[in-house]
């Protein structure tokens, strides 16, 4: 594997042992947000696994109810049921109150026999949403794309998004057999010749993975986790020795690669073993003030954030501002400052790494003029010129941005992290990309 | 970090040049800040939205300017340099898009251009404003001595031997850089360099490294400059490609400089080949160490260096090459700052040398489509 340019080495955290999900989870009200009009109504009694939405497109998974209960509430999120010219799609919120005091974190459903992609794709669609982080786009879009595009490589991305909080490595260390088995299944489905598992260099991880990878004919790569190699764009570049370049936020299948996240592979591996599909997901809570010691817990998507740990339940409001989903460098706060509607819920698309910032949310120092130190350009993994891009973003001229390819920004956050003038580089780029894309004025090349 | 660098150079200036050096530096800093603030007020009235640099940066740059200046008989140049620096900081430096080095610009405008003008209009005459005091404090009068209490005789003894005559606080010596510029072709004659070393006309290498030679009060100690340069590299404010490429470019450029000998033109490298390796190494060592290359490439250059990796290499090459060209053809010590001025003016275009392989790939794909 080739080492990416720029980037930064962070000290690796300690692995956390993740136990298998308990046979029963405490029942909690579930709130799901869906992109299609649901096929249920308020007051309706539903069973676990019942379809809530059934999208038309093949690359979108259906939404199913993770619990048996009653639909307490079903309403559009923005208060109106009518389509609007400014909204691309309607979103609905469904609240389900479960029956009983506990629920099963899995659904009994045998995996399809054989290795025919169409059968597996149909089954996966019917069994609910899969997390949308595999390769940056999700598992189902990738599998749907392989129907028309050939792939020759499957990569299991076992690198931690943020090395001090080794979420992926902890999963690999806790479920080594399942991850290799699940990776092999996907490789067989898409007909990939090369199957690789990329993992970070961590204590005893190689020893746990090597035997099972040998059994399932998965090539194991143990590498130093140079941040942000875990990003799909950089991972593809590194794994293919620089021959393939995947634009951020695009389907890796366009480059002949399928990228899996560890939990997706583990989920498939456990599906084969248990003949039941996990509905609960593992969440790893990181506490920066506790020197990167993480806590592992299981919860159903749609549950409240406070069920994960008693510290979260006891945390002073607003909880949303103190929680960051995903990578601490570029993750999303559950509630942006100034917002009145918190979202401390576990959505299916959320990453499993959650960082609790504690009682004191660090504030950013005031920005000063750029001193042209060049540190941002030095750490940028795609060799962009962040200082120059910031000037162009300030000019709000998208035509000037095109030559500099802001769409190659992988949103690693390193430019802001190293800037001695505390310039909001990554934040500005994210806002610019979000600002231009929906209106269509800035078309990525 | 910059405070540490400036404090170290200030300490060296205080030890070997005494309170007069401190006074000179203080005048530069005070005038710079005063004119910067006053001109800033005027600019703010005209352009309220214009960004201004921090006062700490202005103070640091003016401190560096003061450290680059020698002690003068008359303070007028010092006052003028400080005042001009205050104006220049609004036009150049890291905040402005031009990114021209303010110290280099000030030195060229205040010293080099007037000297060249006077020289062209009145050859052979010197202007009192530019008269430097080529003295350094005696070993037994360090820190507390008066730099202006010296005998007119130019000492050719080693600096440590100057302790014998304690009537004067300071000892007058030849400024190494001016001496090297004056004798850059003369030293290429057979046995000339050896004679200069034996007679004490040329200072010893250890004196250059320690800094007990006249010249810029804060930049006389080449050893300290190299150490501080390494420290700045360690702190990632400076980058080793700049220093290395500057020295390599200076070395190569020096070897190809033209020399006229018996009506025949040759180059320095060929002359050194005839003189032998010992003389060649000594000559090159003195020419590089005696020049302000270490000060410019290691201490001053990082402030306005380009942000791209290849740009920094070219920046260093420009500094080294232009410094040798300037000192060879302009034949005045202040000409060295022309190299920094021109190189820093190229910084912004050199930023564009940072090229993303991903962007190039996308461009190639678009062109194919």
Q: Supply the helix-strand structural class of chain A.
A: alpha+beta
Shape of chain A: globular
**Strand order within the widest beta sheet of chain B:** 1-3-2
Q: How many strands appear in the DSSP assignment of chain B?
A: 5
- Profile the largest sheet of chain A: 5 strands, mixed
Strand content of chain A: 15-25%
Largest sheet of chain B: 3 strands, mixed
Radius of gyration of chain A, taken over Cα atoms and rounded to an integer in Å: 22 Å
Sequence-ordered SSE layout with sheet pairings:
The complex is a heterodimer of chains A (445) and B (369).
Chain A: E1 25-26, E2 30-34, E3 45-46, E4 51-53, E5 63-64, E6 69-76, E7 92-98, E8 102-103, E9 106-108, H1 117-126, H2 139-145, E10 153-158, H3 167-174, H4 176-190, E11 194-200, H5 205-215, E12 219-223, H6 232-239, E13 257-260, H7 262-274, E14 276-278, E15 281-286, E16 294-299, H8 310-314, E17 323-325, E18 332-333, E19 353-356, H9 375-379, H10 386-395, H11 398-401, H12 414-418, H13 425-439
Parallel strand pairs in A: 10-11, 10-13, 11-12, 15-19
Antiparallel strand pairs in A: 1-8, 2-7, 3-6, 4-5, 6-7, 9-14, 15-16, 17-18, 17-19
Chain B: H1 2-46, H2 55-68, H3 76-91, H4 102-121, E1 135-137, E2 150-154, E3 170-172, H5 176-182, H6 192-199, H7 205-210, H8 222-234, H9 240-255, E4 258-261, E5 264-267, H10 268-275, H11 277-289, H12 293-300, H13 309-329, H14 336-345, H15 347-351, H16 357-368
Parallel strand pairs in B: 2-3
Antiparallel strand pairs in B: 1-3, 4-5
Helix pairs in contact in B: 1-2, 1-3, 2-3, 2-4, 3-4, 4-14, 8-12, 9-12, 9-13, 10-11, 13-14
Describe the structure.
The complex is a heterodimer of chains A (445) and B (369). In chain A, 26% of the residues lie in helices and 18% in strands. By secondary structure, chain A is of the alpha+beta class. In chain A, α4 (176-190) crosses α5 (205-215) and α10 crosses α13. Chain B is 60% helix and 5% strand. Chain B is built from 16 helices and 5 strands. In chain B, the strands form 2 sheets. A 3-stranded mixed sheet of chain B has the order 1-3-2. In chain B, α9 runs parallel beside α13 (309-329) and α13 (309-329) runs antiparallel to α14 (336-345). Chain B is globular. The N and C termini of chain B lie far apart (51 Å). The chains are: A alpha+beta (445), B mainly alpha (369).
């Amino acid at each position: 594997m080739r080492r990416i340019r720029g980037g930064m080495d962070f000290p690796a955290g300690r692995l956390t042992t993740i136990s298998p999900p308990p046979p029963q989870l405490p029942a909690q009200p579930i709130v799901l947000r869906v992109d299609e009009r649901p096929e249920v109504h308020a007051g309706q009694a539903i069973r676990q696994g019942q379809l809530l939405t059934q999208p038309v497109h093949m690359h979108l998974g259906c939404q199913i109810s993770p619990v048996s209960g009653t639909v307490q509430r079903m309403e559009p999120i923005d208060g109106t049921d009518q389509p609007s010219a400014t909204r691309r799609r309607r979103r609905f919120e469904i609240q389900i109150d479960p029956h009983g005091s506990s629920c099963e974190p899995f659904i009994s459903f045998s995996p399809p026999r054989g290795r025919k992609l169409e059968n597996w794709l149909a089954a996966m669609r019917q069994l609910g949403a899969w997390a949308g982080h595999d390769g940056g786009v999700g598992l189902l879009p990738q599998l749907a794309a392989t129907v028309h595009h050939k792939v020759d490589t499957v990569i299991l991305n076992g690198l931690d998004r943020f090395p001090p909080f080794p979420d992926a490595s902890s999963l690999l260390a806790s479920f080594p057999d399942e991850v290799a088995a699940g990776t092999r299944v996907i490789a067989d489905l898409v007909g990939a010749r090369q199957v690789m598992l990329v993992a970070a260099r961590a204590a005893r991880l190689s020893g746990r993975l090597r035997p099972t990878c040998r059994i399932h004919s998965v090539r194991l790569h143990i590498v130093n986790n140079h941040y942000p190699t875990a990003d799909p764009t950089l991972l593809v570049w590194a794994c293919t020795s620089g021959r393939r370049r995947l634009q951020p936020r695009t389907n890796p299948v366009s480059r002949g690669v399928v990228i899996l996240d560890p939990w997706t592979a583990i989920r498939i591996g456990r599906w084969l073993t248990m003949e039941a599909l996990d509905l609960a997901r593992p969440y790893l809570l990181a506490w920066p003030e506790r020197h990167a010691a993480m806590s592992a817990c299981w919860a159903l998507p749609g549950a409240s954030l406070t069920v994960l740990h008693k510290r979260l339940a006891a945390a002073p409001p607003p909880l949303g501002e103190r929680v960051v989903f995903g990578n601490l460098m570029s993750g999303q706060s559950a509630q942006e400052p100034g917002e009145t509607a918190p979202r401390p819920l576990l959505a299916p698309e959320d990453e499993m790494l959650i960082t609790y910032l504690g009682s004191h949310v660090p504030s950013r120092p005031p920005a000063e003029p750029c001193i042209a130190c060049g540190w941002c350009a030095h750490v940028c993994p795609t060799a962009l010129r962040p200082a120059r891009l910031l000037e162009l973003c300030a000019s709000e001229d998208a035509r000037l941005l095109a030559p500099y390819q802001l769409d190659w920004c992988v949103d690693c956050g390193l430019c802001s992290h190293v800037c001695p003038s505390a310039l909001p580089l990554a934040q500005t780029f994210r806002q610019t990309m979000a600002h231009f894309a929906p209106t269509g004025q800035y078309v990525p090349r | 970090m910059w405070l540490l660098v400036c404090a170290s150079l200030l300490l060296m200036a205080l030890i070997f040049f005494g309170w007069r050096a401190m006074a000179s530096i203080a005048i530069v800093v005070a005038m710079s800040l005063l004119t910067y603030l006053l001109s800033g007020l005027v600019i703010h009235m005209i352009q309220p939205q214009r960004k201004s640099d921090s006062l700490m940066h202005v103070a640091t740059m003016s401190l560096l300017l003061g450290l680059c200046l020698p002690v003068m008989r008359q303070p007028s140049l010092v006052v003028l340099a400080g005042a001009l620096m205050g104006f220049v900081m609004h036009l150049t430096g890291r905040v402005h898009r031009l990114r021209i080095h303010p110290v280099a610009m000030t030195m060229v405008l205040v010293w080099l251009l007037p000297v060249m003008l006077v020289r062209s209009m009145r050859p052979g005459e010197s202007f009192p404003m530019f008269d430097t005091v080529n003295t350094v404090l005696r070993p037994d009068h360090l820190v507390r001595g008066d730099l202006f209490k010296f005998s007119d005789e130019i000492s050719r003894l080693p600096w440590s031997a100057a302790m014998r005559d304690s009537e004067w606080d300071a000892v007058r010596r030849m400024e190494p850089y001016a001496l090297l510029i004056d004798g850059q072709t003369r030293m290429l004659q057979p046995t000339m360099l050896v004679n200069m070393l034996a007679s004490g006309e040329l200072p010893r290498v250890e004196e250059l490294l320690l800094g007990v030679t006249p010249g810029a009060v804060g930049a006389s100690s080449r050893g300290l400059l190299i150490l501080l340069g390494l420290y700045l590299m360690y702190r990632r404010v400076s980058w080793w490609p700049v220093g290395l490429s500057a020295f390599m470019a200076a070395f190569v450029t020096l070897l190809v400089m033209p020399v006229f000998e018996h009506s025949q033109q040759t180059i320095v490298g060929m002359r050194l080949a005839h003189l032998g390796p010992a003389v060649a190494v000594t000559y090159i060592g003195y020419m590089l160490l005696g020049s302000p290359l270490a000060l410019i490439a290691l201490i001053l250059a990082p402030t306005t260096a380009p942000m791209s990796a290849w740009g920094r290499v070219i920046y260093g090459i420009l500094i080294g090459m232009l410094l040798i060209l300037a000192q060879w053809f302009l034949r005045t010590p202040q000409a060295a700052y022309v190299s920094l001025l021109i190189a820093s003016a190229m910084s912004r275009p050199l930023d564009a040398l940072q090229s993303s392989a991903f962007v190039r790939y996308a461009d190639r794909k678009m062109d194919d489509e």
